[in-house]
Amino acid sequence: MGTAVRRSTSFLLSVAAVLLVVPRYDGAERLPTIRDRPMVTANPYVPAGGWPDRIGALAPVGGLTLSSSDPAFGGFSALALHDGRAHLLSDGGNLVTLALRGGTVREPRGHVLRQGPGVGWDRRDRDSESLTLDPRTGHAWVGYETHNQIWRYAPGYARAERHSAPAAMRRWEPNLGAESLVRLRDGAFLTFAERKPNRRTRHGLLFTGDPTVPGAKPIRFLFQPPNRYDPSDAAELPDGDLLVLTRRFQYPFRFTAKLVRISRADIQPNAVVSGKTVATLAPPVLGENAEGLAITQERGETMVWIVTDNDAMVLRPTYLLKLRWPRSEREK
User: Fold this and answer.
1) Of 30, 80, 152, 296, which is least packed with CB atoms within 10 Å of its CB?
2) DSSP 266
3) In what residue span(s) does the Phytase-like domain sit (predicted)?
């Protein structure tokens, strides 16, 4: 093989390798839709060197890697848990629910959000980035990042019931909007923008009720995440405070994440809220794009769940982690 041919072959292989691991951000990309019953494979995940006893304030319980031959599986940007099932929402309007049983997953089901802010199936039409559920009724709310809209869906995602484009979100940057959405136990809703208004702070809104109700007016505040980190999801702790998942991407290909606790009492009109970092996820424990967060109660214990977004790259599995918030740490 000649030198020129070898160089050409090496270049093409390098390009192919990059395309397999680097996220695709073309907004015009045609998105696949998930099957009704996708085949999902779950394997135990143990980081290199094993699990540490603690990750900051949290104690690891375990983890899974999830994969599927379905081309629409993955890219999960939000996580919710309801009635023993994990709800994994992709950034393309596809949703997978799984029954969790003793470290295994069963009965995977696929759902497609066929009604949304766009009329097609390009990424810009279906940029679903955040999800929250009403545990009593099963209603779901989805935040669409590109359009800066919030949609409410009937139980089981059967249909869209109503939606809104809150005036307070209209100036949020396209593709950097409602990255987080959480329904609080008192019926309030909280959302964060991924970026802006500047390098150090992010837009935050607290709705006193359903944000899709006409005329809903939120409290505006600013969230100051750890330096160079962006909020990717949030969940409510048992005492009413908020746990915010933040993540950072560094070239050439490295992710880290920080969990930040903020006091609900600190969320006031025009306040700047920073909170306290309670855990950092970094290699070798996790070096992936942590985007979804949920909190559950199990026999009086608080469990923190995190799901990663593989950016639809076939060589990157989806990680689902479970960590325990020790009672001694919760009381600090």
Assistant:
1) 30
2) G
3) 72-311
* Tally of domains within the chain: 1
Q: Is residue 26 part of a domain?
A: no
Q: Is residue 92 part of a domain?
A: yes
Q: pLDDT class for 215, splitting at 50, 70, 90?
A: confident
E strands present in 225-300: 230-236, 242-250, 254-262, 272-273, 276-281, 290-298
Which residues have CB under 8 Å from 287's CB, separation 6+? Answer: 254, 255, 256
DSSP letter for 154, please: -
Biggest CA–CA distance in the chain, Å, is 71
Can you give the CATH number for the domain in which 219 is found?
Answer: 2.120.10.30
All residues at 6 or more sequence positions from 305 whose CB lies less than 8 Å from its CB, including other chains? 79, 81, 86, 292, 293, 294, 295, 296, 320, 321, 322, 323
Domain span including residue 243: 45-330
For residue 171, the Cα-to-chain-centroid distance in whole angstroms is: 22
* DSSP code per residue over 73-125: ---EEEEEEETTEEEEEETTSEEEEEEEETTEEEEEEEEE--SSS-SS-BTTT
Residue 311: which pLDDT band, with cuts at 50, 70 and 90? confident
- Whether residue 3 lies inside any domain: the answer is no
